[in-house]
Design goal:
Layout lengths: L1 E2 L3 H6 L3 E5 L2 E6 L3 H10 L1 E5 L6 E4 L3 H8 L11 E8 L5 E11 L2 E5 L5 H11 L6 E4 L4 E7 L3 H5 L3 E2 L11 E6 L2 E6 L8 E7 L3 H12 L4 E3 L2 H10 L35 H6 L5 E8 L10 E3 L8 E8 L6 E8 L8 E6 L2 E8 L15
Parallel strand pairs: 1-3, 4-15
Antiparallel strand pairs: 2-3, 4-10, 5-8, 5-9, 6-7, 7-8, 10-14, 11-12, 12-13, 13-14, 16-19, 16-21, 17-18, 17-20, 18-19, 20-21
């Protein structure tokens, strides 16, 4: 069981921790609903040091990543990032990632914590033969995120060498962060504006403490993985292991935009994905019309039918909207907005309706997502 460099600080803050993807992680501090609402109205501070950081450098880095992933990182401008996927040769999803370009031949790939070793092994194999070096810095890099409407005011006093307010959404830059050399990115997983601060492992405690102390005036609070999950679900963002698995494809998940079938050269999974570009099911959003909360694994039926047509992948009671929401895969015939289904919750069925994703969208939308 790994512990992040902030473990002692989480304990001092009274965090409730639990194992997650091989790490001891804070699940909540003041409570999931309170932390969720703090992110929506002020800002939350997250320890994401369990995420992976794989650096690729060399003249062939762009070509290597274009072969390994479904996107084409060669098209990224320096200082930009994009959402990507690494797929199995069968077209199933191995992981979803963010790719950052910090230089002409310098890229950072961030996989999910639970898939870090698997992705690192796959990337090592897929980039062999290219003029590229992969450096797995996951256990030497801390990742701290500030998410919420006051993120700019909170982060700016701690950044030297860059202007957080001028950084575009899905932008990234080298910078000095609370006195530590690192990388600042304007990406996120909550539906709010925010920043990620990548810093050396040994600098994490100082960066966290500085942000939390000065950010208190703007309502900043520490937030655990529990609220992170409800936030991302409201924002309609898929989670690997639930919406995204080896048995789902990007097209089924409504993320066909990250599959660049027309890019120059071959890539792993191209043939299989080209054959699956017209899926037979689709990831949808659901709101419950009856009492109850849908949870992952609950079967979904058409009214009066006994054979399930789908299964809930994620569900919660939305703190922002005040209704129960869920995501699920449904056949195309039942996937249109307004379609009615029933979710089996314990001994009864709750009526639900297909609604557009995301469930929540903040009033001022991010700019320049690539």
């Amino acid at each position: 069981m790994h512990r992040t460099p902030l473990a002692a600080l989480h304990q001092a803050l009274g965090a409730r921790t639990a194992p997650f993807a091989g790490w001891e992680m804070p699940i909540q501090y003041s409570g999931i609903v309170d932390e969720h609402r703090t992110v929506r109205t002020a800002a939350g501070l997250f320890d994401l040091s369990h995420m992976g950081e794989l650096w690729f450098t060399g003249a062939g880095a762009g070509d290597a990543l274009a072969y390994a992933l479904t996107t084409d990182p060669r098209t990224l401008a320096i200082g930009r990032a994009h959402y990507a996927m690494i797929c199995h040769p069968t077209g199933g999803i191995l992981d979803d990632l963010v790719v950052y370009r910090l230089g002409e031949t310098r890229f950072l790939v961030v996989p999910n914590a639970g898939n870090r070793e698997t992705v690192a092994a796959a990337m090592h194999a897929r980039t062999a033969g290219y003029a590229v070096t992969m450096d797995d810095r996951s256990l030497a890099t801390a990742l701290i995120a500030v998410q919420g409407p006051h993120a700019v005011e909170i982060v700016t006093p701690h950044v030297a060498g860059a202007d957080p307010a001028a950084l575009a959404y899905y932008g990234c830059t080298d910078a000095v962060l609370a006195g530590a050399p690192g990388m600042l990115a304007r990406t996120g997983y909550t539906g709010e504006d925010g920043f990620e601060l990548f810093v050396p492992w040994e600098a994490a405690a100082g960066v966290w403490t500085a942000l939390l102390a000065s950010g208190a005036a703007h309502g900043l609070k520490p937030v655990g993985l529990g609220a992170r999950d409800t936030l991302r679900l409201e924002a309609g963002m898929p989670l690997y292991g639930q919406e995204l698995t080896a048995d789902t494809t990007p097209f089924e998940a409504g993320l066909g935009r990250v599959v660049k079938l027309a890019k120059p050269g071959d890539f792993v999974g191209r043939a299989a994905l080209a054959a699956q570009a017209e899926p037979t099911r689709r990831l949808v959003g659901l709101t419950l019309r009856d009492r109850g909360i849908a949870r992952a694994g609950m079967p979904i039926f058409l009214a009066g039918e006994e054979t399930p047509v789908g299964m809930v992948t994620s569900g919660t009671s939305s703190p922002t909207l005040g209704v129960a929401i869920a995501m699920a895969y449904l056949p195309l015939a039942q996937a249109d907005v307004g379609s009615r289904v029933e979710i089996a919750i314990r001994e009864s069925r709750a009526a639900a309706e297909v609604v557009p994703l995301p469930f929540y969208k903040r009033s001022t939308q991010p700019r320049n997502r690539t």
